[in-house]
# Entry
Amino acid sequence: MAQTTFREAAAEWQRLAEKGVVRTSKGEQYKSSAIRAYERALRLRVLPRYGDDALADLKRPDFQQLVDELLSEGAAPATIATTVAAASCVFRHEVDRDRLKLNPVHGVSLPAARKGRDHVVGAIAAAAMLEALPEHDRALWATAMYAGLSRGELRALRASDADLTACVIHVERSYDDKDGVGETKGRTKRTVPVPSLLCQRLREHLMRTGRRGDELLFGSTATHPFSPTRVTVRADKAWRAAKLERLTLHEARHCYASYMIAAGVNAKALSTYMGHASIAITLDTYGHMLPGNEEEAATLLDAYLDRPTGVASV
# Structure
């Protein structure tokens, strides 16, 4: 097996990952979206360089050179990180089966990802954008903006998942074009509280569509999920006509996070509502939106220490 090429090993990894035989380092199945992203990264950026090289001949400097070349070509840090992660998965598979001693990708230095502020719109602008949409699309976009569901979760949402008496949405599944109905964002089911204005829009939507039970809440039909492309095209057309800025469904999810933070919802609760695997993901993604700075922190601490119960003993 020492002369196995990287191309052959990558093909085996993909085949077994798609079958659920090869799993993540946490022992979970790879999501189809992750497999597709890794396959694309390997096909476009690794195989052209190292596809025909024997696995045993590839060393860490080879992949450091790959990183340096991609960076010089203008590739984004996130793109480079995905590429290296994809190669690492292939090598880890070989190491786990004692066909290689070491994973040569370990120790490769990656460029820091410079995160800009996520594209969000304010609450007043969001309300105007919803009103500019075709009536049958308003509830969908409102749910993205005010409940923070991912695109796949919105596509799989059933009428019965919206409990409009309690004003909550039960997020229990997601939809992928290749795999159909599957697990949610973060692989956990969750219950998301929603504001009354969204509850009202959902009531109107259900009355207008007549959807009930297991029928899809936002499907193009009661049983067929909506097309994200068509939904986005309709929204773009409506917002151009109204001279409003555009937004994607994923960016609408960022809007939800910003509204929750502005409303004072703590990071741990937000992490749960958004379906993040850990609070670290929430803080890493939205930490720049969290309120507070040095002056405010000092003021808050002063106020606490001035209270009778806050006086520290020394």
User: Anything to note?
Assistant: The beta strands are 162-163, 168-171, 174-176, 180-182, 190-193.
